Amino acid sequence: QMQLQESGPGLVKPSETLSLTCTVSGGPISGSRHYWGWIRQAPGKGLEWIGNMYYSGTTYYNPSLKSRVTISVDTSRNHFSLRLSSLTAADAAVYFCVTTWPSIHAFDFWGQGTTVIVSS
Amino acid sequence: EIVLTQSPGTLSLSPGERATLSCRASESVSSSYLAWYQQKPGQAPRLLISGTSNRATGIPDRFSGDGSGTDFTLTISRLEPEDFAVYYCQQYGSSQYSFGQGTKLEIK
Fold first, then answer.
1. For A90-116, what is each residue's pLDDT tens digit?
2. B52 to chain A: nearest residue by CA?
3. Contacts with A102 (C-beta within 8 Å, 6 or more apart), sequence order
4. Taking CB atoms and an 8 Å cutoff, what residues of chain B touch A112?
5. What is the rounded distance in angstroms from the CA atom of residue B51 to the CA atom of residue B67?
6. Tell me, what DSSP letter sits at residue B56?
């Protein structure tokens, strides 16, 4: 059973860059055909897909965030990461790392989520 | 971008009753790529159903999904106390994903 765990700063200043990491346990990222991604949820709001990285290395991002987002994978550390630049208060949310199995394109495994506050 | 609209926004029912949740898409969605999630307060969402009607591992058979094209439904046949939560539908198409705004299922 795959398990995901997010880590990163809980507080980020406006205009700065958010960096989050998702550590994967229960199997190696290398060679896995899962897609690795991020979803966020603003306080009291619904779910917003941020982006996915495919096992091939191709990335796909939500068009509304594309200019500010980078998702990358580090197979040596068995984790993948999210970078979101030029933060504003609107980026405050719980950020979840997720996996997607390519045949179903549904998010089958989720991290517990990490809360990000944007404030000076 | 495909927009998913869920209805009702809030559904008030009693344990033992049947719940029917709707998800309507702004354009046709492949039935292979329509999923449903359950989220309880303070928790990550949990995948219930993928491919419109395929229950995820460990999901009780009181949960069922149906639909095609632009109209999809999640049905909970007999509500248990642990079923009261927020439910989201989600679609995939053209390398993009989107979610509905959610339906809150509350105890009447």
1. 999 999 999 998 899 999 999 999 999
2. A104
3. A33, A34, A35, A54
4. 43-44
5. 10
6. P
